């Protein structure tokens, strides 16, 4: 849904019109809502309840996108679909209040929420509110709206109050490992025209629980080679330009520590103009790669890395 959020920001009201023309259906990660009173940008009690329900429900589930200003109703197939646009008057005020309400309507507070407005070209001052809520690693989150002190979850195309066992399970799973990938360049040998180096790859755990079975997938490596060698710190699988470094049952990462996952071999030479360049990268390119990493029961994270020759200890 993050892709749709970004696309709608780019398309503007035309993107909203497209969703309606296509009768886009609500889903596990997409919800349409109409403001209780369209003619003003002030949050009503019902608006707060709807907003808090979505914040809690999406954060406690798989995340999702809430679009306020579009009416969704059941069609002949009994599926809720986008039917009509009802832009919110004074959308700038509504956006400002929404940003304030995000910090007040759920506990614990959410960190990964993106909110923006799309202005209407047909109605001056009006528009639509887009709210992208990521799945929270601190779940469960409770609605703090008036007369609605409940935990919600998203199932199908609806929000439901969580049962006792849902809440208990969410609390038991709330602790999670939070991993970050870091790269450490190291020069092994160098002279005035050539250097042999390695790029060490680590996963660090900034979360509160142990990360088990950590892994990192390397994609589109340019300017380095990942050797399938016995002295790699973790098991390496794959070939060509895609590789998987995966830790075993003993390769855990405790909170506040890091784990050496793999190393890449790097050769840097001077070209005829005296400029350092990576081999076998094309002339002038940086050492680059895309990667995906995570651990057991954790969410996979994407990243990319670019390293220039000056990151290594080279001769002038």
Which features does this protein show?
19 strands, single chain, 316 residues, Methyltransferase, Cobalt-precorrin-4 Transmethylase, Domain 2, 2 domains, five-stranded antiparallel beta sheet, Immunoglobulin-like, four-stranded mixed beta sheet, alpha+beta, elongated
Describe this structure as you would to a colleague.
This protein has five helices and 19 strands. With 316 residues, it is α+β, with helices and mostly antiparallel strands. It has two domains: 2-172, Methyltransferase, Cobalt-precorrin-4 Transmethylase, Domain 2 (2-Layer Sandwich), CATH 3.30.950; 179-311, Immunoglobulins (Immunoglobulin-like, Sandwich), CATH 2.60.40.10. A hairpin with a 5-residue loop joins strand 16 (258-270) and strand 17 (276-279). The longest helix has 15 residues, at 45-59. The chain is elongated, with a radius of gyration of 25 Å.
Give a brief outline of the structure.
The protein has 316 residues and is an alpha+beta fold. 17% of the residues lie in helices and 38% in strands. It folds into 2 domains: 2-172, 2-Layer Sandwich (Methyltransferase, Cobalt-precorrin-4 Transmethylase, Domain 2); 179-311, Immunoglobulin-like.
């Amino acid at each position: 849904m993050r892709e749709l959020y970004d696309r709608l920001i780019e398309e503007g009201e035309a993107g909203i019109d497209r969703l309606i023309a296509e009768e886009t259906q609500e889903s596990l990660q997409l919800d349409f809502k109409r403001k209780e009173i369209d003619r003003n940008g002030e949050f009503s009690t019902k608006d707060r309840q709807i907003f808090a329900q979505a914040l809690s429900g999406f954060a406690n589930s798989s995340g999702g996108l809430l679009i306020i200003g579009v009416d969704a109703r059941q069609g002949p197939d009994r599926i809720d679909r986008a039917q009509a646009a009802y832009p919110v008057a004074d959308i700038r005020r509504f956006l400002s209040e929404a940003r304030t309400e995000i910090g007040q309507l759920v506990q614990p507070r959410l960190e990964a929420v993106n909110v923006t407005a799309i202005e209407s070209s047909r109605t001056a001052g009006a528009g639509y509110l887009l709210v992208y809520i990521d799945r929270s690693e601190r779940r469960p989150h409770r609605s703090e709206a008036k007369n609605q002190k409940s935990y919600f979850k998203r199932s199908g195309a609806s929000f439901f109050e969580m049962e006792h066992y849902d809440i208990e399970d969410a609390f038991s799973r709330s602790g999670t490992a939070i991993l970050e990938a870091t790269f450490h360049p190291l020069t092994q040998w160098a002279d005035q025209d050539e250097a042999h180096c390695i790029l060490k790859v680590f996963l660090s755990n900034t979360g509160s629980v142990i990360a088990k079975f950590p892994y990192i997938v390397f994609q589109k490596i340019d300017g380095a080679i990942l050797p399938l060698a016995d002295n790699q710190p973790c098991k390496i699988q794959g070939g060509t330009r895609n590789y998987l470094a995966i830790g075993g049952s003993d390769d855990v990462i405790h909170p506040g520590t890091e784990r050496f996952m793999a190393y890449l071999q790097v050769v840097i030479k001077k070209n005829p103009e005296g400029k350092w360049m990576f081999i076998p990268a094309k002339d002038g390119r940086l050492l680059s790669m895309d990667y995906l990493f995570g651990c057991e029961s954790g969410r996979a994270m994407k990243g990319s890395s670019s390293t220039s020759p000056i990151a290594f200890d080279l001769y002038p």
